[in-house]
Amino acid sequence: MAALTRAGVLTNYIEVAQHLGLNPHEMLRRVGLSKALIEQPEQRIPTVAAVTLLEESARESGCQTFGLRMAESRQLADFGAISLMLMHQPTLRDAIRTTVQYRHMLNEALAVYLEEAGRTVIIREEVVTDVPMPTRQAIELAIGIMYRLSGALLGANWRPHSVNFTHEAPADLHLHRRLFRCNLEFGAEFNGIVCAAADLDKPNPLADSALARFAQHYVDSLAVTDARSVVLDVRKAIYLLLPMGRASIEQIAEALGMNVRSLQRRLAEHDETFSNLINSVRRELVMRYMENESYSMSQIADLLGYGMPSSFTRWFIAQFGVAPVQWRASITAPEP
């Protein structure tokens, strides 16, 4: 079953598209969407269509920051039915956990993970689609929205250390600097936000526990069909945990709240295996890393879960029929 996304993710798409000289109705038509559809924010739309729309709009307009332009004006209310619940969580940590818990009502393709590193926390984010495809604009939109959510809850107390992207920097960083107001890291090993752990636990001055309970009862009463696929959930978990060296079947099962046998059984119901899924994610991620010349082969091996570069090399040859060094040389060689 294809992953679905709440249409509200495309809030203000038409405004941004028109500002950049695009015909939004034509762009929507190309990916099988319509103005009427995205004007119903609780409507579910195919994730692939939404991600393709952002990438095509960025390409057609020549604007490398299309997704970020959409994120810049987002408000808490744009989260739809769970907005009130998010607004009244006692801390940012609670708000992020709520976002993860109710992700099926927002964006099935969004993967979020809090990595604790002493006094520092990394809010890792990935957009994982059913099929491999460029997701630069969707990633920038997601991280921009997370940044603005955090700022809405903490106000002046929100001072992250850095915002990190695995893709390369755009030619013009003006919008990134205006929106994020912190250190920017491009070509990084992960997509996400680095902040002090203490920031996540600072009291939310807007919090009202009674309203939070009321909002949760309302959200839980909604008749939302949980059409999530365990296959997509496993893929998202692998995307987040593989670069951290924590993508064993035991760790993935734990992250999804089940035991290994239950995970294997549920994957088998979809004619899938864990080994096939981790291999397919490695194939997708390796292209991201190989195309970024700042990554050494040993770094890439480590990010893909290989303790030895030689093991990575053997896997790469088996998958692509050529050694990784040769593959990289072929894509960086000058045109004749």
TrEMBL record:
PROSITE patterns: HTH_ARAC_FAMILY_2. Signal peptide: none annotated. One of its GO terms (molecular function) is transcription cis-regulatory region binding. GO terms for cellular component: cytosol. SUPFAM superfamilies: Homeodomain-like (SSF46689). It comes from the Bacteria. Residues 232-330 form the HTH araC/xylS-type domain. Keywords: DNA-binding, Transcription, Transcription regulation. SMART domains: HTH_ARAC. This is AraC family transcriptional regulator. It comes from Marinobacterium nitratireducens.
